[in-house]
Specification:
It contains 1 helix and 2 strands; from the N terminus they run H-E-E. It is mainly β.
Amino acid sequence: MADVLFGVVNPSGKLPYTLPRHAGQVPIYHSQKKWSGYRRTGADIHLGYTDMPATPLYPFGHGLSYTTFEYSELSISGTEIAIDGAVTVGIAVSNSGPWPARRSSNSISATRQPV
């Protein structure tokens, strides 16, 4: 921990979940369905709360680093997926900053349930 605080080691962890600012924002999570009534958009007349922003305190994938990274070569295993199928997504990550570092990646698993 001291090595991270003093800049000897670059922090590389990322949050695997979203942290709301306040209990009144719950539920707030990355797999929330769009138009479920909880998620707000820029076109929505709801402009947030009067005493705090409507954004999460720390969103899914949040993490700090002493360097920067570039992402390229996105690949997706197919254009169509069967209802019981799977997809594989890949991306190349390179360190474009001045510090040696590693970038951990978050993966999301989703299951779609028929209506």
